[in-house]
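Tokens for YiiD C-terminal domain-containing protein. Go.
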Amino acid sequence: MTLPDTPLLARQLIQFMRSTIPLAKAMDLQLGGCDADSLTLFAPLQPNINDKGCAFGGSLVSVMTLSGWALVELALRQRGDDCDVFVGESTVRYLSPVWADFTSVARLPVDVSWTSFFRSLDSRGKARIEVSCVIPGDNGKPAATLIARFVAKRRDASAAVADGTH
């Protein structure tokens, strides 16, 4: 069995986001990088600026939410799982203004594993996982953080065929 090309899948996922989520295109989100444990989205300041000249808080929370969603979606795509992914709940903290282009780094917290997530998905057809997202700020401190719980639910192939969406 050939393992999927993670960077290629990540680039395809960002293209998908930009073509199907108007906000992702308007924010000019781009792939900043990815590895086995994290996914980074890049956002230029200009389309995300507020009246004070720094990044709009709504843009910060949006890029963090989208980077968390993308991390979960990428893990599912790597396994070939066809799921809908939703954010179930989140908590955001704004810690300092962001005055330049910015990134959001999404990763699993240290006490969370993909193993239990996929075990639940395989046995129940749905699963929840917590993701931690950070917008780096000055001096190694975060400018904003988001802790979110994402839900993945297998798509029902027979229902998709019946309603014409497959």
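The longest strand covers residues 142-154.
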